[in-house]
Amino acid sequence: MKFFSDIRLLILAVWIGAAVFFIGVAQSAFSVVPERELAGAVVNRSLTILNFGGMGVAALLILTSLVGVANVSRPWLWIERFLLLFVGAACAVGQFVIGFWLASVRNQMGGPVDSLGPEDPLRLQFTMLHEYSVWILFAAMAAAAIGFFIIANRRFTRPATPQADVYDFSKEFKV
After folding, report:
1. pLDDT per residue as tens, the chain (175 positions)
2. What is d(CA 54, CA 4) in angstroms, rounded to the nearest whole number?
3. 54, 67, 97, 124: least surrounded by Cβ within 10 Å?
């Protein structure tokens, strides 16, 4: 079961790595791409992939947490499942709730975000939703990191083999 646990760790580590890489891509896109709207499109597409990946990874790891857990500490197993459920839910909220509202606000703007003044209500709403998106991704990454360490520190115990009773002399004196 250690090998199976290592595969699960690898899957979770790949998603955490992708999330960290996404932060670098987002910052680089806005500093390299000449138009902020194009940079926003790149970031939006990358975030969509990251969110769907997070939902898939969470679902897969929750399902695989049901396999081979006879000798695993139940409280830690349930904490792991809860954290993975949180990762999936956070990615779903980021994609389907916050992403929907961001797209709606962008459509209401009718043009680039930068064309609006800093005190425009739509721009303020866009900024607020963007901050929510950042925080929800950060929360998902933190939950995934905690889940990673819980899985990594799991102890696998072998089933206890019955020990011979040293005071059972009936086997010694067979006539």
Report:
1. 678 888 999 999 999 999 999 999 999 999 998 888 899 999 999 999 999 999 999 999 999 998 877 778 889 999 999 999 999 999 999 999 999 999 999 888 887 887 788 888 888 998 999 999 999 999 999 999 999 999 998 876 555 555 666 666 666 666 5
2. 20
3. 67
- Strand, coil or helix: 42: helix
Distance between CA atoms of 118 and 124, rounded to whole angstroms?
Answer: 7
In single-letter form, the type of residue at position 163 comes to: Q
List helix spans (H) across the chain. Answer: 2-32, 36-64, 74-92, 99-109, 121-152
The position carrying tokens 């059972």 is 168
Residue position matching structure tokens 């990191």: 145
